[in-house]
Amino acid sequence: MTTASGTVLVVEDEESIADVLAIALRYHRFEVMIAGTVREALALAERTRPDVALLDVMLPDGDGRALGRELRERRPGLALVFLTARDSPAEIVGALGFGDDYITKPFDVDVVIARITAVLRRTRPADVLPQRPPLRYGDLELDETTYSVRRAGRTVELTPTEYALLRFLVRNGGRIVPKEQLLRHVWQYEHAPPESTVVETYISYLRRKLDALGPPVITTRRGVGYGLA
């Protein structure tokens, strides 16, 4: 695709909200597909290859998070952004457990566009990637052509955002990377709220997956940031 910014699958059962999102996304040169139910979304995703799915959590025939899991199983590289009226920490952490971002309702359309653009910037590979040598740190190996990760020779299944976070830590070697720098480079947040826990949440996901295959590899400098042991 050479003229569009990417393809977005909008799954939202309220037509007025779906229409507003579609108009704004198309204005910013995204191709847009709209579904109002889980069934419609699965059918659309089967016929096309969206770059990102923008999912309402509460749908008339199912849960948007369950839909996200199924879409991700069918296409591991698909980016997931959740729309939710629920803003409790438990709901947010649950959405980020396998998604790439969340947006609470009511929302500003410009913020939605910015967040989708940021997610695609960190998750979607370029149309044509040159062959690049893998990144290595200790027993970690990141293949920047296939966006795959191995530890001690064993494959580690990561979401696109988890991969982007690990890649940034690997590229910084043994340095402690401040939380603000991670928010800026991995999430493209210039002014994240001070209470944001997105970095801590994703660090915990990485630790759970990496530590299952060897000794702890991510270190914490309390009050500063994170690095690799």
From TrEMBL:
Residues 132-229 bind DNA. The keyword Oxidoreductase does not apply. InterPro entries: CheY-like_superfamily, OmpR/PhoB-type_DNA-bd, Sig_transdc_resp-reg_receiver, WalR-like, WH-like_DNA-bd_sf. Keywords: DNA-binding, Phosphoprotein. The modification 4-aspartylphosphate is found at residue 56. Residues 132-229 form the OmpR/PhoB-type domain. SUPFAM superfamilies: CheY-like (SSF52172). PROSITE patterns: OMPR_PHOB (PS51755), RESPONSE_REGULATORY (PS50110). The keyword Repressor does not apply. This is Response regulator transcription factor. It comes from Streptomyces shaanxiensis.
